[in-house]
Amino acid sequence: MKSTTFKRNAAQIYLSLVPFVVTFLAFTTGHVSYKIYLPIWIINACLMITAAWFLGAHVVKKNDTEKKHLAIVACLLLAPTLLTSIFGGMGAPPDTIKEWVITATEQQVRFSFLILSGILIGFGLILLRDKLTGTGGNFYAQLGSAAIIIALPLLVFNMSFWHSLALEAFKLKVASASEKVPDWFLAMRTLDWILTIVEFCLTYVAIIAFAAALRSANWFRKIPSRIYIIISSVAIICILLYPLYPGSTMFSGFPYYPFMIPAIPFFMLYFIGLNLLRNAGTDDQQLYAEIT
Question: How far apart are CA 7 and CA 135, in angstroms?
Answer without folding.
Answer: 31
